[in-house]
Amino acid sequence: MKINQFAQIHVDVKQALAELQTIGLFTAGATNKPLATNLAHFLHSCFPEAATKSGQDEAIAKLLLDEQTTVSDFLVAPTALSAAQFYNLALQLLGFEAGTDFDLADPLKFMRSSQLAFDATDPVDNTTLLTNIYLLLTTHTKLGLTFLDDLANRGFFASYTGPRPLFFNGKAQAVFDTRNLIKEVVYVEAPLDTDQDGQRDLLATTIFRPRVTDDLKIPALYTANPYFKGINNVDAMLHDVDQELAVKTATVKSTVTPQKPLPAPRQVAGQANQTEKTATDLSSYALNDYMLARGFASVYAGGIGTRDSGGIRTCGTVEETISTIAIIEWLNGKRRAFTNRTDNIEIKASWCNGNVAMTGKSYLGTLATAAATTGVPGLKTIIAEAAISSWYDYYRDNGLVVAPVDCQGEDTDVLAELCFSRQKDAADYAKVKQVFADELKQLQVGQDRTTGNYNDFWDERNYRNQAANVKADVVLVHGLNDWNVKPRNAEKMWQALKQTKNQRKLILHQGQHIYINNMPSLDFTDMMNLWLSYELYDVANNAPAVLPNVTIQDNLQPETWHGQHDWAPTDRKRRLYHFTPASLTLDEPTDAAFVTFKDDNRRLFDQHEQNETRWLHDFIAEPTTYQAQQFRLKTAPLTQPLVIDGNIVVTLQAAVDQPTGMLSVLVVDYGKGQRLGEVPAIIERNGYQLDPAGKTDNLVEFKLQAATDFKLITRGHINLQNRVSRSTSLPVEPGSFHTVNFELQPTHFQLAAGHQLGVIVYASDMGMTVRPQTVANYRLDLNACQLSVPFTKH
Amino acid sequence: MKINQFAQIHVDVKQALAELQTIGLFTAGATNKPLATNLAHFLHSCFPEAATKSGQDEAIAKLLLDEQTTVSDFLVAPTALSAAQFYNLALQLLGFEAGTDFDLADPLKFMRSSQLAFDATDPVDNTTLLTNIYLLLTTHTKLGLTFLDDLANRGFFASYTGPRPLFFNGKAQAVFDTRNLIKEVVYVEAPLDTDQDGQRDLLATTIFRPRVTDDLKIPALYTANPYFKGINNVDAMLHDVDQELAVKTATVKSTVTPQKPLPAPRQVAGQANQTEKTATDLSSYALNDYMLARGFASVYAGGIGTRDSGGIRTCGTVEETISTIAIIEWLNGKRRAFTNRTDNIEIKASWCNGNVAMTGKSYLGTLATAAATTGVPGLKTIIAEAAISSWYDYYRDNGLVVAPVDCQGEDTDVLAELCFSRQKDAADYAKVKQVFADELKQLQVGQDRTTGNYNDFWDERNYRNQAANVKADVVLVHGLNDWNVKPRNAEKMWQALKQTKNQRKLILHQGQHIYINNMPSLDFTDMMNLWLSYELYDVANNAPAVLPNVTIQDNLQPETWHGQHDWAPTDRKRRLYHFTPASLTLDEPTDAAFVTFKDDNRRLFDQHEQNETRWLHDFIAEPTTYQAQQFRLKTAPLTQPLVIDGNIVVTLQAAVDQPTGMLSVLVVDYGKGQRLGEVPAIIERNGYQLDPAGKTDNLVEFKLQAATDFKLITRGHINLQNRVSRSTSLPVEPGSFHTVNFELQPTHFQLAAGHQLGVIVYASDMGMTVRPQTVANYRLDLNACQLSVPFTKH
């Protein structure tokens, strides 16, 4: 078991003692009291669930200092306290089991192997005891919480009367009662009329916040969530991907819709101090829930076109971004909200200190990114997980329609329909049916599935164009095995942000399209608590320096996270691999060599069970049943491990016997070995407790799986007509060679020594591209093919 | 979509109007008011989340009466209200979507097809409107709750001031606030000293109960849960199943441990009105959580040997049962509990009305069964899901060690160790380590893995021996595909209970070892609410007559549940299938016929990937790679469907070339078809809301899967040495024929017409029996082999 606590701050004695006083655990006089008195006092505080000394003594009596000594014995007749004894005690308090997790004879061995911080001073003097206790309170339990969080969940702060919010070790603590939250809805008036009803669109906004008794103003974690009010079934609307590639003619230009004048704001008819609509929504994002008890409100909004709001869905437009930031502007006192949609009674976010962070994964993180690129005041930071930074990189690649994994046939129109939850209210839907139908038609034109080219439509949806406007500090989180929102979205945003002066952090994990807040091996929640305390409460915790710039999960060693300075910098050293008929090699080829493969993947896919996952597996496996459908090369077994970091660039020279063609590339780690699962396994259902009120999440961890023969590293696709650029099409002359040069999805991947780096070149990709029926024959000029691999060291 | 609401009671007009008054929705004068007034009043009550008329009007404005008419239009200018209009409205209120789920042109078509109750009176007069509203409140939403539950979750009862508890349609309603529950721990003194420390074992007991402001006493749902305080890792303790069968000599007799005198009860040193220890446990059972807001306390206890309690784990003994019922005795005022383990301050369950129901699945349901067989006063009913009724039927079968699925190598000693969570507290464990080690040794002797015979040890653990003592009404729930706790446990208990006068109900689903409280197709939670209101609050709701005796889920049609009078009665008609070399047939064989197969399954299993699930699949599949290892027969395709109901009995005459032998039998439905998954799919994560405070469970449903070629119906195993009985061993003479006759696991299974009934005879079963290395050759005398199949009609 390895525990990485990047957010644990190591402080000096003075600071430790001061903070122990802040949480009411010790008084200033503690340094002058006998060690055993302080230890006894601390231990009695470790069982807040027991209201009486008897109950606390019973709990203490269950602890051993060593094989021979119970803690109760020691407290009755104190002697010197060894470091080993203290850490035996500490580990038991942290939920580790003597004999099972650690050995009472050598607790420091376990502290070291699990990477828990400790002070080896031996014997433990009184000051060391107090600083050890401080350190212990900031150390993670077996279930992935700091010990102080665990104590708080068991009632440590139940009778706390000190200042709120409360910060300890730079992080906000659970001193707000979340059992009886204020749950309310307001309607924010956006400067939009997307449903063209002559009134500005009102956006239903859900707020969860603790009841604060004094005049404390608190910040808000805001999640813009288009799925918040439910989704529509879009199965019938998915595009047919059993299509031929088109010979492209022109690129679709934006039809500039004449901008209708924006209706005037509503006339305010009065002011309210209280909202009148109770939110019945259930919260859905564990990080927000965790922060609630720590003095951060949660705000959720579906945005235009979602149920109970005005407007229509437009999938990635500027209007959607304006809808998203309207909520921030209201929280920041710069826009109006009303208590209902009828009476024009204004309600202010008087509870909010004006500081906002946006959180969320996927489309939710995407809207956080969109909002940040406006530079909207009040938005101090975003934590964008698995976020799209350019919609072209979600639905397209190099002039091809390329679907997110498991989303064949989806596109911006389908997603707009999916999220247009106003449709769920029959009479409300009737009013905007036609306007939304027109919008869908416009989306279908603009997204242009025929060419797959980058055009004005996609350019509007490329948030990176406005990266220079970003004023918020940014945390990006992305899965290196995320084939839904592919890693390029994070990488290009990360690079684009370098032009700003803002703080930025990046966390890359080995998962797919998932949250990572609930893993014992990484203190993600603490990291974000530290970050949000710094950003929204201006706590001087030095968060930007404490947290690594880039945190990357190791793909071979479980529970291992590396801090590094950067990811995928453009100046990474590169290895240039050449293609020969026999192998992928660093030696330049000498003889001319040509190979062929055919694209009748659709036929074989149809014959088999039409399962995209299985198809991909069988396509990569050795031996493969798809040998004629691909050209595959491998390096010799590596003599040293190779750590790929960044964008592999592939150069291919290919001819095809058709007037259209595409190339797909897979880069693969070949070699028998155990690998991390791409989906974390549940360690304990509801084992991760978010607050003293008892809200939970599952406790999960990436686990090594049974040994496999290979692992996909990265991939990419290109339309041969787009060999010059993704926005420009050139004709493909059947039989002539054309050269393409393009980036695969960025990665960070360690190949073990003895493994082989493999590359597979083929044409249509059953899970991502269109699936032509026409059989095409491809020829590669190997001498002109290369793989340029950026690498680094751990 | 089909919705089965077995607990929906149809009442007369008078009763409906009276109950509508009880929940404060209408006054007695409503019958004299205009229909539109009543409808408007009702609709305004349907949006309790909106505190103002404006907010409610906005919600109402989203509803359509028909394609042309909004509800708002109607309320402004009322006309006659058609039944179709009312049910369009009703379906929208229930969360069904116009155009997607149902057609506004014919809502009654959807009502019929989904089996929702309705009154077709057309047009709707005022009285019909009121009774329609009553019916609507008791009807399920799309998310599996009654509409009144949905309203309650949205705040309908937030300002309710009437009597608590409140019953509507015979079921308790959510009028208790669960946001700020009393969560407390007491220590019940059991009449046991299983850890031999000279003091009676104290049992930590966790109580969750709503704060009740008046002197109302409430009943308790009690779940005895040995896993409640955590489990130990037992991987290292699993028994090696790569074993030869033993030639049996003697059966293990109980070594009668001299009964030590029970220590005297503790001297009471005082009385407390309040507990002093806060429970920090998180509740884990959704049915209990659901009932909490409805006026039923939840009580959890781990029992002897679990963390924070005294005693040791003994796996299924009388002591474990005594430990289980001690809690009930305390709830019922007949046993003492203390506020802590030190001070001997007594605390009474003064909040409890003395009525207790036990709930839980698997080991939890097992302890409910055990408790019921004591006839303990106060235990009014048990809801035992997937419960063991005899531990022999869990770990053994017909003189063989037969593991629960995925539990090879587990036994009573392993399970005792798994649950002995006192081990987690180092100093506490040190005190009882030796006593528990001795207990494990005794378990290992008594369980006797060498012979697998039924003996005194197992007889003590056969709760059915005491079935005549049961005084509680019993609900049994079991999965017909549960190969962990196999269906025999439910079936034999069901039969044994017939000797008592108690009410009994049985629910059989098509799942594995799962809970079924959260499926839209079955109102299990309502059924249990009706039952528990009847049992624990003495509500005259006629529950025993309202609910079917036996509710069985159809294995072919999704969302279909049948009520029937009994399951597996002994007088079911039977079809006798004979074995011929060519087929399983109803015709008596004429010619002698012998077949052979060999048992080298272990060798093949080791060669392959040692995956038990895949092994079983491949063993049954056609063609099978295990042809030489089995004898397989099928009937001709059935001309009519066949509904098997009860215990298939198999007779085999077999010889083996070894001094030991075993036979395993699989009965299989062969025929291509879609079948229900054995694990319900998640329809909506956290989509099933349990209370107004926002506690949730996933919403799930059994779904039809992609077509498969076969489905396992049932199975059984026998040791050839136990051909006379499971407790008596006879020698196996190599080469001689021996006859065995035994029941397979009971089932209820419909084979479609055109399918074939198959039987597979073999020896060692990789997933369940020991796996001998010695290759054995078996011979069957087909003329003496038969399959006796009980059947019924739907």
Automatic annotation (TrEMBL), chains A, B:
Enzyme class label: hydrolase
One term of GO molecular function: aminopeptidase activity
Catalyzed reactions per annotation: Hydrolyzes Xaa-Pro-|- bonds to release unblocked, N-terminal dipeptides from substrates including Ala-Pro-|-p-nitroanilide and (sequentially) Tyr-Pro-|-Phe-Pro-|-Gly-Pro-|-Ile
A Gene Ontology biological process term: proteolysis
Assigned EC number: 3.4.14.11
Key words of the record: Aminopeptidase, Hydrolase, Protease, Serine protease
Functional summary from the UniProt entry: Removes N-terminal dipeptides sequentially from polypeptides having unsubstituted N-termini provided that the penultimate residue is proline.
Similarity remark: Belongs to the peptidase S15 family.
Quaternary data: Homodimer.
Protein name as annotated: Xaa-Pro dipeptidyl-peptidase
